[in-house]
Each structure stands twice: as C-alpha cells, then as structure tokens.
Amino acid sequence: MAKPFFRLQKFLRRTQFLLFFLTAAYLMTGSLLLLQRARVALPQGPRAPGPLQALPVAAVALGVGLLDSRALHGPRVSPELLLGVDVLGSPPARPRSRPGTRWLRGRSSELRQLRRRWFHHLMGDPQGPPALGPEAARPAISSRGTYVGCFSDDGQERTLKGAVFYDLRKMTVPHCQDACAERSYVYAGLEAGAECYCGNRLPAMSVGPEECNHECKGEKGSACGGAGRLSVYRVEELQPASRKRRTVTYRGCFKLPENVTHAFPDSLTQANVTVEMCSGFCSQKEFPLAVLRGWQCYCAYPTPQFSLRDAVDGSLCGQEPEAQRLAEYCEVYQTPVQDTRCTDRRFLPTKSKVFVALSSFPGAGNTWARHLIEHATGFYTGSYYFDGTLYNKGFKGEKDHWRSRRTICVKTHESGRREIEMFDSAILLIRNPYRSLVAEFNRKCAGHLGYAADRNWKSKEWPDFVNSYASWWSSHVLDWLRYGKRLLVVHYEELRHSLVPTLRKMVGFLNVSVSEERLLCVENNKEGSFRRHGRRPHDPEPFTPEMKDLINGYIRTVDKALRDHNWAGLPREYVPR
C-alpha cells in the first residue's frame, strides 16, 4: 500500500513542478512580448485636429480655443532607395475621413506596420551585416568596373569624400557603381554591407582583402567592405538600365575676384579649352565649380570672395577669348561633383541640454529643412517617426530614439499641448497651405516621387482631403504659438528666397557656430535629393471657390495669431488667392 502511495506522491510533485514551470514560462513570454511591443511601438504619426476641426473659421478667430488633436497612424516605410527623391516628411494618415479613402489604415494594416518596424529593428542590429568567410570575400562578378582593392576608412577624413547614400536592404555593387558614375566620379566604394561612397582620389596604402569581409545586403556572396573598410571599384561606365550622367550646369557670368590665385585653388591653361574639358578637369580634382576665362580654366568652391550672388550681363562673357581675359569676367559652370565641405555629419558628442523640435505641417518642407540644418551644423537631426527611405538617404538620426538627445533637433508634425510641452524650444516651419496641401496629396497618392493622377483630383478624395487637412494646418500653428516655450518662426518661402541669411538665423537658434564657407557649401548643395523629378502633369486649378474660402479663412486666422504673438504676419503671397 505504501509503494503505490509513494508513486502517487512522486507523480504529483512532478506535476506540480511541471505546472509551475509552464506557468512561469507563459508569464515570461507574455512579459517579453509586451516589453518588445512597447519598445518598437514608436509614435505612429502626427496628430490631427479633433472634433473641433469642423468649427467655422470665425469660431476659431473669436477664441473658442485651440483645436484638439488626436493620434494618427504612422507613415508608410518605403523599402525602395530612389536617387533624386523629393522626400518630404512622413506625414500621417487622417482617421477622420470616410472609410475607403487612400489614407485610412485598418487595424490589420497597423499590425503589419508594427511587424515591419520590428523587422527593421532587428535588421539594424549593431552587430552589423553578416560577415563573409575569407574564401567568400571577393569582388562582384557582375560589376563593369575594375576592382581596385580594400582600403581603410576609419580615419578623421573619409577615403572617398564624394556623394554618399545607404540602402539597408538592397545594396549591390552595380547599384553603387551606377550612382557614382551618374555623378561623374571615378571610384565607387562600399562599406559595412549597406553604404556607398564616391570619389576621384584614393590613398596610397590599402589593407588586406580579408578585411573587406561584409556581405552586400542585396547581393549575397559579394564583398561590400567591412567595419571601417571600403571595397573600392574603378567605375568605367554606366550600366545599360541606369540613368544618364549628370551634365554641367551653367551658373552665369561673373566678375573675377580680386585675388584669383587665392580664390581659385587649381587651374589649367590650354589653347582651345572647352567647357567639357574644363569641367572634366575640375571634376577629376573634385571641385564643384569650373570657371572659364579665355583660354584659362579654374577650379573653385563658392567662397565669401566668390559667392556667385552678383551675376552680370551674360554678353560680357560672350566676347573672344583674348578680349574676355582682358575684361576680367568669367563664365561659371556647376560640375556634377558634390561640394564636400559640408557633407560630414555625426551625432552630438554629449547629450543636448536643450530639447529642440523642428515642427511643421506635413508637406511644408520639413525634410528639406533637415537636410539644410544637418549640412550647416554637421550634426544629425532626429525624428518623432521612422522612415526607412530617409535613413537610406543618409538621415542616420531616423533610427535613433527621438528622445535620445543625440541629435541637433527632432522632426515632428505633432500638435496639442502635451506633445508640444515635451520640447524646450522649437523651430516652427510654416508654408503656404495651398502648396502644402498639394504636396501632401501628391505624396499620399503617388509617393515621395510622383504626382497624383487626374482621377485622384477629380474624385471625392481631394475635397475630403482639403476639408480634413486645411483646419489641421491652422491648428498646428495656433497650438505651437500657444504652448511653445521658445520659438523661431521660419517661413518656407523665406528659406527658399534668402537661404543663407535664414539658415544663419536657424543655426544661431540651435546655438551652433558655423563658418560662412560652410553655409555657402550648403547653398551649393541646397536641393539635396528631395525634389520631385519628371514632368508635372498639366493640372487645372484644383481648388474650388468653396475650398478657397475655407483656406483663406484659416490663413487670416493664423496671420492674426502671429501678429498677436509679436511675429511678422504671413507672407503676402499667402492671402488671399
């Protein structure tokens, strides 16, 4: 009798231990999932006006209060890397619209977005891309360029100083070669499996080929450099499917500076010199400007002594070479080579004590402003959201947590008291609502690069979009004026027309000192990669009289609010159309 009882007691003890183990495992698994969800569930997007957004404009003007805002779903993360993209911000979707419109997302879509971000989070593991074995570290067979070797890239200055871009998912050797060939660079270098650098000059010393042991993200078996190592190819020609080389751009006729030798670091004197010869010579030397004066070719950067702001009549440069030389005028051309004096960027060496926002309504040029700020200050900007396309274009702050304080400022489209008071100060970027609405509608319907089709403008989508977003443009500015602790108001149009003076004010607001040469470098690279390319469809005026009345009312409201807060009102071109 004792023996069966002992067996039963032993079985119950085992069962108890098993139940305890399963319960503990279940609780631990659930906790890990909740923690991970909290970790990757980044803010899903800016907030839009709440139930008060449908109030008449007069109600807002009479001080009924600032429009509430509610959370919106996050921006789509595009897996594509597109050179020459017009990347605006990653604006949100508006939940107020009727079911079935393009910018609404269902719960399943949100979960897919969450899983996608978790995947990208895993892909961004600091351990880096998978390493290749010594036997696999070989140049790509499909490339047309000649493999030069493996070079160090961990010094204070980069080995290849030209154009740079990233692709965390699809980087290949031909992709990098085509990008560099398009810009007339001689060498293409790949680093850490996902980074592409271009240049025309190489250091004298290389390192062992075994040190370039990282695999290309989009080309298994091909070596794409390593940690601080570049797999370098000499680019011979463009691939058949790629775009044409960028051409030389005429900048105008200018008077020569007083000290030509000091202003122009390199030169070439040759009989019958042509624009192509001069541009090729300066591109090889990695200068962004080619200057022609008679038979003389000079290579230069924009400087305070030669800023390219005071162009003269082009006929003064249309004389015979000898007469042109004596007349002290020169023709200036922009080479395909990038001005590299302002391309170095890094995270802040210590955490910022002042938490600064770069706030704007979607479609107002926030990403372009980030491009200017990063190149002017030399520090990365962060984002309240995450956009893989922007990260691929070199915005490394996209993957940094927006509260890390390692970036010079943080992009946001948020409004509402809680979201605004998190920041110590803010640059408030405002753009003409007519242009902002068109830009954002184009992005929502056709992505960062495209234009909305005629059917989109003629459908119910467009009036619904305007009715929903126009009030948000107003409430965004009003909320920041009311709750912002320390503001610098910048108008997009002012930044376009007077870039250097306006950018100087922005940099000063960020408490960063920059040289005039660096600001001129930013001006020379002002477009970045964020303009839409291709033919703009011939569109009639998309705004109906009713839409104009609505938008003009909001414009007058914002204009009055700016003046009440001792700011200059909106530019005259805003009101009314």
UniProtKB/TrEMBL annotation:
SMART domains per UniProt: WSC
PROSITE patterns cross-referenced by the UniProt entry: WSC
InterPro entries per the UniProt record, alphabetical: P-loop_NTPase, Sialate-O-sulfotransferase, Sulfotransferase_dom, WSC_carb-bd
Domain of life: Eukaryota
GO terms of molecular function: sulfotransferase activity
Pfam families (UniProt xref): Sulfotransfer_1, WSC
Residue span, WSC domain: 144-236, 247-342
Keyword set, alphabetical order: Repeat
GO CC terms, sorted: Golgi membrane
Family listed: Belongs to the WSCD family.
Designated name of the protein: WSC domain containing 1
Species whose genome carries this gene: Equus asinus (Donkey)
Lineage of the species this protein comes from: Eukaryota, Metazoa, Chordata, Craniata, Vertebrata
